[in-house]
């Protein structure tokens, strides 16, 4: 079993290893999406990019990133400056404990933003 701590929501859940982060968050009532994506999103197919989260601890316990996820994230401004911690929840398998920040803010002043 693995523990996911959602820092913004101050919620901790226990999930089986290998669980999908998006599905477990939704099952626990954790809102991953901002408006209007809470109504219209790709439902976990790595197309919309709106399930972005930051894994602030335990990134080593997340599955490795696939081509579709890498491609989608590289098209997203919020990815700049968060390359080491941002993942798409729908593409992330939880293989151990982690801390997750939902709805990460846009990093306008990240050191790499204008480079
Ligand atoms: S739900 Fe659309 S990219 Fe994850």
Instruction: List the ions, cofactors and other small molecules found in this model.
Output: FE2/S2 (inorganic) cluster
What is the string of SSEs from the N terminus onward?
EEEHEHEEE
Unreliable spans = none
Counting DSSP H or I runs of 4 or more residues, the number of helices is: 2
Looking at this structure, what is the CATH superfamily?
A: Beta-grasp domain
Into which percent range does the helicity of residues fall?
A: 10-25%
CATH class: Alpha Beta
Features:
115 residues; alpha+beta; Ubiquitin-like (UB roll); 5-stranded mixed β-sheet; two-stranded antiparallel ribbon; 2 helices; binds FE2/S2 (inorganic) cluster
Structure description:
- With 115 residues, the chain is α+β, with helices and mostly antiparallel strands.
- It has a single domain, classed as Beta-grasp domain (Ubiquitin-like (UB roll), Roll), CATH 3.10.20.30.
- It is 13% helix and 24% strand.
- It contains two helices and seven strands, in the order E-E-E-H-E-H-E-E-E.
- The strands form two sheets. It has a five-stranded mixed sheet with strand order 2-1-7-4-5, with no helix packed on it. The protein has a two-stranded antiparallel sheet with strand order 3-6.
- The model has no long low-confidence stretch (mean pLDDT 91).
- Bound molecules: FE2/S2 (inorganic) cluster (FES).
- FE2/S2 (inorganic) cluster (FES) binds at residues 41-42, 44, 46-51, 88, 90.
């Amino acid at each position: 079993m693995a523990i996911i701590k959602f820092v913004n929501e101050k919620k901790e859940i226990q999930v089986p290893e290998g669980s999908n982060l998006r599905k477990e968050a939704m099952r626990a009532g954790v809102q991953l999406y901002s408006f209007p994506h809470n109504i219209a999103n790709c439902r976990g197919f790595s197309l919309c990019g709106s399930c972005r989260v930051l894994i602030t601890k335990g990134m080593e316990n997340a599955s490795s990133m696939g081509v579709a996820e890498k491609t989608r994230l590289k098209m997203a401004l919020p990815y700049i400056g968060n390359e080491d911690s941002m993942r798409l929840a729908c593409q992330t398998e939880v293989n151990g404990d982690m801390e997750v920040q939902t709805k990460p803010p846009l990093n306008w002043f990240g050191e790499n933003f204008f480079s």
